[in-house]
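User: My advisor asked me to double-check a structure prediction for Histidine kinase before group meeting. I don't want to rely on an old file, so could you generate it fresh from this sequence?
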Amino acid sequence: MFTVARSRPAPITREPWFRRHPNLALSVAGVLFVAVLSLRLLVGDPVDAYSMLYALPVALVAMTSGLRAGMVAGLVAVGLTVVWAIANGVDLTVTGWASRVLPLLLLGALLGQATDRARRAEIEHRRLEAAALLHRQAIEINDSLVQGMAAAMWSFDAGQVEAGKKVLEQTLTQAHELVSGLIRRADMGARAELLDLPAPAGRPVSDALPTATADPRSGRRA
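Assistant: Sure, here is a fresh prediction for Histidine kinase from the sequence you gave:
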C-alpha cells in the first residue's frame, strides 16, 4: 500500500590521496621538509629561492588537515629557514626575512582555512540532502495515509464494516512501521526506540491508540 522514496545513489567522488591517507601525507610532508633543508644547507647561496620549496610541504599539510595544521607547517618552515640562516651564518635584511617568511605563513593559513570551509560545506550539503530525502518520504507517507483512510471510509459507506476495519488497521500498522523507520534514520536515539515499540500481543494497533473521552461539563469529547 505504501511506497517510500529511496535515495538515489550519489555519484562516487574519489577524494585525493592525501585525504584518504592523512598519515601518509604528513609523512611525505616531513620528508619534504628534511629534503628542502638539506638542499639549502648543501647547495646554493643566500640569494637562491630554494626556501620557496617549503611551500610544497606546507600546502600538503594545510590541504590534509586544515587551518591549524597549515599554520604549524608554516611555522616549521620558518623555523627551518632560521636553522639554515644560523648554520650558514647568513645575515638577511628585514625585507629578505619577510620575503621568505610571510608567503609560507600566509600559504598555510589561507589554504588551511579554505580546506576547513570546503569540508564544512560538504558536511552541510550531505545534511541537506538527507533532510530533503526525509521530507520527500514524509510527504509520500502522508499521501499513503490519506489513501488508506479514504479506502476505509469507502468501505464503511458501502456497509462493509469488517473490510473497512481491516484496511484501517493495516494503514495504521504500516504507518507506524514507516514512521518509526524514518525516525531511526534521523538518529533520534531513545525516542525512536519508544516509538518503535510493538503493540501488545493479541491487540490490534488501533486498540493501542488513545481513545477519546467525554468531558462531563461540556458534553464534548476530549
